[in-house]
Amino acid sequence: MPDLPWGRAPYPVLVADVHGAVVRCNDAAGLLLPAAAPGTPLTDVAPDWLCAAHTALSLPGPHAVPDTEGPLRGVIGGRCFEAHPTIRKDGSVAWWLVDDTDHQLVREALCMERGRTAFLAKASNVLLSSLNLARCMDVTAQMAAESLADAALAIAPARGQRLPVVTCLRGGAPVLSTLTVDPDDVPGLGEALRGFPPVPSRWIDPATAPAWMVPEGFGPVGSIVITPLPGHGVPAGALILLRRTENAAFRDEEEVFARLFAARAGAAMSAARLYAEQSTITDVLMRELLPPVLHHISGVDFAGRYRPSADHERIGGDFYDVHPAAVEGEASLVSLGDVCGKGLEAAVLTGKIRNTLHALLPMADDHQRMLGLLNTALLSSHHTRFATLVLASAVRRGNVVDLKLTSGGHPSPLIIRADGTVEEADTHGTLIGAIPNISSHTASASLAPGESCVLYTDGITEAKGGPMGDALFGEERLKRALSDCAGMPAEGIVEHIQMLAAQWLGNRPHDDMAVVVISAPRTHHLSAVNGHTRGRFTA
Amino acid sequence: MTTHPHLRLTTVDAQDSVRIEAHGDLDHDSAGLLLREVTDQLSARPAMTDLHLLCAALGTVDSMGLSALLMIGRRTAAAGVRLHLDDRPAKLDRLLRLTGTLDHLTAPPLTPR
């Protein structure tokens, strides 16, 4: 075809007329479509997709190529081509064929990489948003089963002899089971779970896989790969991927990708494990440090309530305890205090104080000595972290409760008399734990039936709020409120004060608030006694 | 002058005495600032005999603030420097009296150099 200027053009060009017959083609087209000779029907020469496009486009007379979305594409002889038409004056069409097989491959690879990146980003988001180990294992198994394999098992390091395993089939829900199996029976699994030294993923012969590794109803296993989940210096576990026989085995690049996923899953799982360990430690600490539930002891009513400064710091600087007398008829000891600062450091000091006071109980009748010894025990050359506290010894004599009250730098206890008068106990002293020489003065008081003594921390009086939001609750307001509590039971007074302080605060932040109330119960004469002689009472 | 959102310190020094004026709250966040300033002054001026803390413009002093004052008391005493809490507002006096620290901080025992 020497008359064609594009006869030796490197791209295949094929001209067909309105009747669907080949008019001419260049050398390159001859190589691609060997049957293409002038006069042959296009349908005998070219694949269906090109014939259909030609029929749609080839109309008699000159006309324009209608706009289409992107070029026409199809496969010829195992390679991928774009077909660009130009319409000639007589309505015949010249098809310019451009091989874009490599372009297509690159496009597919890019698309796959994008998909993987999106998958890893999603994995990170989902995994890191949870600090719950069980949820991390579920997500790991589920995401792996959706994108990497037909089924996936996320395995956490064994606890004793038991191996926690989450199994997930593609499209299914993750299922946790705890298996009593030896991971060393599976080649590579024991090493992967120990995590040190880091081991590469390994393929194992499906025939050697134990039954527990294959989910029920999975069918014959084609390939298995075990990938370690690396953690922050601790082994986080292992990921097992399974494919069915009808699906292709894992390729190298897929295995690399599985490792990238495993790195993220492992980081999340070990973070969740560390967090779980920490929260267990905090729980154990808190069980020791949370104030006790108070009640009626030896004819005296006790009630207490503690509201910590922030919900995420459930252990704070305030504390209280009630120690019943070792011998019936002796005084019970109440301690209520406030440690400077907040958070864990304050909690540790609180624990020390409570333990020391507990050990000093045999000398509970001598408040000065107790405070002196406590002070010595807490003094530290490194800091001046101190505590202020009140000790109260309470003992029932007849229907009256006798009190001894000693303040170590703490706001004085308030006594609510039967007529609504509120008295401040005449006790004062030095704070504890910062100064070598301390002194204190003890006050004595008696509570008639229905009268109460209120121990509180300054979180109550320094609660900032009120109608304008900037006023302190203050001692005067507290006294007025307590005056209305005359005759109320201990539990009711505690409830009332906490409620008033909470209302005063609104939603504003606040310090720890602790209240303990000691009450002399209202007594009733036993009906068996005639009610006139002084005798037995019930509480 | 050292600044902090809540506490501002102005230090004026003479040959043997240093005056630190504190404006603002002495609390959990700012207590460390005052303690550092005092510690720096103590180590920079071995000849110092008197440290005046001007408290007139002091706002809220919380438990961490008081803890810092106690530490300042301990360090000045150890350095043989007399600590003066000058122009104390009534609120500060009330806190020092309640916690039994007024005498300790206003007439600290001097350990001999």
TrEMBL record, chain A:
Its EC number is 3.1.3.16. It comes from the Bacteria. The keyword RNA-binding does not apply. Pfam families: SpoIIE. InterPro entries: Bact_Sigma-Reg, PPM-type_phosphatase-like_dom. One of its GO terms (molecular function) is protein serine/threonine phosphatase activity. It is an enzyme of class 3 (hydrolase). Keywords: Hydrolase. Residues 297-520 form the PPM-type phosphatase domain. This is PP2C family protein-serine/threonine phosphatase. It comes from Streptomyces poriferorum.
